[in-house]
User: Fold Xylan alpha-1,2-glucuronidase from Sphingomonas pokkalii.
Amino acid sequence: ETGYDLWLRYAPLAPSQAQRYAPHFRYLVADTTRPTLAAAVQELDRGLGRMLGSPPAHAGAVQGNGGIVLATADSPLLSGLDLPLAPLGREGFLIRSVAMPGGRVILVAGNSDAGVLYGTFRLLRLLQLQQPIDALAVADAPKLQLRVLDHWDNLDRYVERGYAGQSLWDWQKLPGYTDPRYTDYARANASIGINATVLNNVNANADILTAPYLQKVKALAGVFRPYGIRVYLTARFSAPIEIGGLKTADPLDPAVRAWWKAKADEIYAVIPDFGGFLVKANSEGQPGPSDYKRSHADGANMLADALAPHGGVVMWRAFVYSEHNDADRHKQASEEFVPLDGKFRDNVLLQVKNGAIDFQPREPFHPLFGAMPKTPLMLEVQITKEYLGFATHLAYLGTMWEEVLESDTFRPRAGSTVAKVLETPVAPRALTGMAGVANIGTDINWSGSQFDQANWYAYGRLAWDPDARAVDIARDWARLTWSADSAIADPIVAMMMESREAVVNYMTPLGLGHLMATGHHYGPAPWVSDLARPEWNPAYYHRADANGIGFDRTPTGTNALGQYAPEVAKRWGDLKTVPDRLLLWFHHVPWDYRMRSGGTLWDRLVAQYDAGITTVEDMQRRWSTLDGKIDARRWAEVRDFLAIQRQEAQWWRDASIAYWQSVSHRPLPAGHLPPPHPLGYYQAIRTPHAPGNGK
Ligand code: BDP
Assistant:
C-alpha cells in the first residue's frame, strides 16, 4: 500500500465478521438523482464492496429486512417515524436501526443531503472499526459551522510550507481537465466533516480573482459540491489596483468599494455557492487597510458588504506583527484587534492562530480567545509541520490542539475553554468555525508521510467536535489506517501520544520558541541575532545571556500576561505556579534557578533535550515490533523516517546545547554527553534549499 487510501482503506473484514454484517447490507434505498446522495451511495458501494466482498443491491423501496435507507427529513420514507432530527441542525445526522413498513433497515437520516453523507461516512467508520451494528442509535452534529482547510498553494503549484509535493490544483489543466484525485480529496474531507476549502495562499496573488481563473475555480467547486464542500479564495487587498486598474485600494474609497462589489457579483454569477474570502492584511508585507490609515474593521467590512448580498463570509486573519512593535510581538494582535470588538459586520470572522507568536511546537493559547466577546473568532491551526520537523518527524498534533482547546480562558468565567469560546456563537445565528493550514500535496500519500495523514484526520475531527479527545481520535485513525487489531493499533497510538512532546523537548523545551533556522525553519539556529527585524531573530525570543534565559512577559517585563484574564495572568505570572512547560515563555530566570520539581534550570534544560531523543528511540522500538505485521511498504517508509527523525533530534539537541553552553558557561550535568562538535560546526550547517520556503 502507498497510503493513498488514507483512513478510507475499507480493508476486507475477516470472513466471520463479514458474515455478521452482511445480512444488514443486502440492499440500499436512496434518491441517487441528488448528487450528494449519489456520492453517499458510491461510497457505500466502494466501502461495503471492499469490506464485505460485494456491494449492496440498489433498490427503489424498502423490500424486507437488511436494507440501508438514506433519506432527508422531507422524504416520504420518513413519514410516521417521528425522528428527533430538528435539534441536529443542517449538517447533523441520525443512524438508527428501525422497523419500516417494508422491513427492518439501517436508516441514515439528516436535515440536508450533506448530513446524510456525513452519516454514511460514520456508518462506514463503525464497520471499519468493527463495532456492533444490531441496534444502532447514533446522533451527531458538528459543533462549529465552518470547518475549513486553508491551502497555502500558489498559482505556480508551489506550496508555501508544503512538504508533500506540489499543489493538488493543476491550474494549467483546469478547467478542461479535472483530475479524479480532486474527488478523492473531497471524499476524505467529507469523511471527517470538513466543509470548506480555501484554495490559495494567504500570501495571495490577485490573478485568482480574474475571469479565467474563476472558471478553473468553478470546475473545482463543481467537484467538491456533492461532498458538501464550499470553495473560498484569498483576496489580495491590493487587487483593485493590480487587476482592476484603480489607483488605490483604500477601503473607504467609493470606486474601490464598487470594484469589490462588482467582483463579488461576478464570482457568484460563476459559482453561486462561493463561500467567501480569507484575508491576510498588513502582515509580513501583505497590503491592507493600514496602508491607507484605515482599520482592520474598515477593510474587513468593505469585503463583507460586497459578499453579504450573496451570503458570503470574510475570514480576516489576526496574524499581524510589524517591526514597529519592538516591545513584544506577542502583544500586537490583541492591541490592534481588541479595540475593534463589535465593529465588524455579522459575516466577518476573525481567524486567530492558536498562539500569539506563530505555530510553535508549544505556545500558550492566544490571549484574543475570550477577549472579543462580540466578534466571532475562529481558531487557526497549522496542520503542515513547518515548525515540527516537516514531513519526516513523527508528531501527532491532536495532543497539541487538544491542549489549546481545553485551555481555560476564564472569559467570561472559569470553564470558558478555548473550545467553548469557539462553540458559543457571540449572538444568535452568529458564525463559528475553525481553520487548519493543509498539509496536502501531490505526494502519493497526500501528506508527505504516513503519520501526517493523522494530523489532517485529527484536524477534521476536532473541527467537528472541539471537545473530542486526542487519544480517541488517534485510536480511530490508527485502526482505520493500519489495522483494527489492537495488538497493532495500541503501540501506534502510544507512539502518537508521546510524539509531539518529544519534538517540543528536542526543539523548544520548557517554553522556548522560535529557535528555527532563518527562512525555511528547518533545523536549529538559536544563535541567530543579526536579522533586520528584531522579532525575526531567535535571540529575540530566548533572550539568553550569561545570567539566564527566557522572555519576561510578566509586569516586570513586557506584561503580555496582562492581556489574559487575571486568573491566567496570576497563575502563569508566578514562578510558584507557572507550569514548567511555559516557564521560559513568560519568565527570564537564572541558569541556576531551582526548579520546583528539583534541580537547576540548566540541568533540567539539558535533560529535556535528552528526553526528547529517548522518546524518539522509544518510538523506533515500538515501530520495530510491527515489522511483518502491517504492509511492508508503509512500514519501511515509517522506519526510515523515524531514523531521520532520530538523527535530526540529535542535531537539534547537540546544536542547541552547544549554543546554550557558549552563553551559560555551565558544565554539562552528570550523565549527559557533550555535543560531539564545537558550536561553529553547527552554525556552519546550511540547508538553503529546504522545501516550503518562499512566497
Ligand atoms: C508563518 C509562515 C509564513 C506564513 C505565515 C502566515 O512562516 O510562511 O505566510 O506564517 O501565517 O508561520 O501568514
